[in-house]
Amino acid sequence: MRSEKVTFQGTDGTLAARLDLPVGKPRIFALFAHCFTCSKDIHAASRVSAALTNLGVATLRFDFTGLGESDGEFGNTNFSSNIADLLQAAGFLREKYQAPSLLIGHSLGGAAILAAAADIPEASAVVTIGAPFDPAHAGHHFLDKHQEIREKGAAMVDIGGRPFRVSRQFLEDIDDQRQAERIRKLRKALLVFHAPLDEVVGVNNATNIFTTAKHPKSFISLDGADHLLSRRADSIYVAEVIASWAKRYIPDLEETMPVTALKADEASTVVVEAGSDRFVQKIDSSGHPLTADEPFDAGGTNTGPTPYDLLASALGACTSMTLRMYADRKKWPLEQVAVRLRHEKIHADDCADCETREGKIDQIEREIELKGELSIEQRARLLEIADRCPVHRTLNSEVRIKSMLT
């Protein structure tokens, strides 16, 4: 993952942001809105964003006005200004990169995403995580200060152990939002995440959002998670579910084979140029989709392994499977096999036992890790068996390739 610091103009000065990018060309862009008084670097935002990059999604997360590293005073902000900041963020992506196809909001950020979604036409999927149904829920953090705020115009309140200045206009603004109407008119696919035992925003909020929204809509229960998604596993789970769910509504996330007359069957593999970038290849190997590409320094976009990477992977997989079959047959205590491979071109005269004496030859280094209470003799025998894997034998034997045009 690459994470770049970026800035853009907000409602009251410059907003600080991070753009988390996948290795290679992003498939889509997403916009993430964090929780009330949080920052872009809170675990829920950073971890979900990082996990999404592994799935080809570039995500922009930013500090709202007056929070984190962004300009402005929090006391002068409100829910409406948060919506405006979100629209500025979407505009920044639209102008500099690509408009967001996916909108994600955590806690009050989820409510803000629901409110802003109608004004981001390129977005076709919306996700909320622990979001309140009514923005006025944000005022529940300091109910004991409401009267003082209304009488004096502002007051210092404690939220999550930090002091914030909250003004009368903030309370008036969150009380004046027509959120139910926005949710009914969303007209975008909606995914609602909520933890049943969320002590900050009760799960009844998710129920209200879900029942108010029109189809298509989905609900995922985050059993065992807390409001802030403090556990890394919960954040990764959320990201994986988002990417899988969003494929139904965002075509660019679909793993589809380009149209070709050649079709794969149980005994064949078909490789087709994707057409999106110079070297990207879509592979259908007996019904299993793969992608191949070249790295950046070779003119590719690094969206998949290189052909030699795939070759090494085949040898590694075959090695591990062969050792597993042999150890199981012998009933040896082999717990796990791991194989690391490295392909390189070496000068023939550097190889003492090679028949080729001039030019360069291919060399694959294979490092095998065996876990389990194995004896020295068993380990030595397994190393011998590794050389007997079918792919190893194929690579060391004469291979004939017949080519034809169709």
Layout of secondary structure:
Layout: E1 2-10, E2 13-21, E3 28-33, H1 43-53, E4 57-62, H2 79-96, E5 102-106, H3 108-116, E6 125-129, H4 146-152, E7 154-159, E8 162-167, H5 168-175, H6 179-184, E9 189-194, H7 204-212, E10 217-221, H8 232-246, E11 269-273, E12 281-285, E13 288-292, H9 307-330, E14 336-347, E15 360-371, H10 376-386, H11 390-395
Parallel strand pairs: 3-4, 3-5, 5-6, 6-9, 9-10
Antiparallel strand pairs: 1-2, 2-4, 7-8, 11-12, 12-13, 14-15
Helix pairs in contact: 1-8, 2-3
Task: Describe, in plain words, how this protein is organized in 3D.
- The protein has 406 residues and is an alpha/beta fold.
- It folds into 2 domains: 2-137 and 168-253, 3-Layer(aba) Sandwich (Rossmann fold); 269-395, K homology (KH) domain (GMP Synthetase, Chain A, domain 3, 2-Layer Sandwich), CATH 3.30.300.
- Helices cover 31% and strands 25% of the residues.
- Strands 1-2-4-3-5-6-9-10 form an 8-stranded mixed sheet, sandwiched between helices. It has a 3-stranded antiparallel sheet with strand order 11-12-13, with no helix packed on it. A two-stranded antiparallel ribbon has the order 7-8.
- Helix 3 (108-116) links the parallel strand 5 (102-106) and strand 6 (125-129).
- Helix 1 (43-53) packs across helix 8 (232-246) and helix 2 crosses helix 3 (108-116).
- The longest helix is centred in the last third of the chain and has 24 residues, at 307-330.
- It is elongated.
